[in-house]
Amino acid sequence: MHAPAYRCFRRWRAFVTVATVAAVLCCQGGCVATKYKLARKNTPPVQLLNIAFPPSAPLQPTLTALIIYGGPGSWKREALWDEYVVTLENGGERPVSIDSATLGDSAGTAYAAGNDPWAIEKQSKKLEKQYRDRGEAFIRAAGPGVLIVGAGAATISAAAGGAVFVSAGMIGAAVATVVVLPAYYLTVIGVNHHNKKAVMAEFKRRRLPLPLTLAPGETRTGSVFYPMVRNPSTLELRWSSESSSGQAALPLDFLKGLHVPTAPAEPAPNPLLR
Q1: Is position 124 within any domain?
Q2: Is the pLDDT of residue 40 over 80?
Q3: Of the four listed, 174, 185, 222, 272, which is most buried by Cβ atoms within 10 Å?
Q4: Structure pTM?
């Protein structure tokens, strides 16, 4: 092949190569950037709390885990809600209906479990503004260097991020039988927060639809979602059956400090200024 023809061939081959690479990158990157993806995140998997509610026969509830903004087990980027994972067991001989689940704050305000992720996020933003307007410090996470830990999980490194809570044994709560969570709780995924359809699908898969009826001996695990509340005080479930009704309430004293930033340490006085 003559030199001019060979140089022309090389230029043509280089152009084809660059065009091919550009097309591949487009298909893998920006050209499909708006499509929904499930991708592993840099957040650790959910940590079990397994804290039993005080006895409320026939219903036997357990707070299995708590998933907060950016914490262990979080699955949506910038999720402006708190996800309380509960396990409900009907230990009686008749069907039991769980009618409602409410979260109380330190001021006595009760928040109903939400069924619309966008409405919950809107409520969280409203609460965040109200807290700050009242001069109450607020942070979407639990605070720096703290973990959500349960019984036997105190060895987790604080470098994992998330929220810091004590173990069940340290708060004197009963430790329930270890709950086997559904697989989608154990796999840390990242849902693109711009894709509402994908977020709604995962939200519905996790959410406990209330009211919910449990057959005798039946157990269900799922999530109840709430806006981000500072210092939550109580998680309360109301139930009813053919012959009776009642409530199961778990004090949340061990969550004191949730969404409250750690106050900065005051600098030591300078002796030269005395």
Answers
A1: yes
A2: no
A3: 185
A4: 0.74
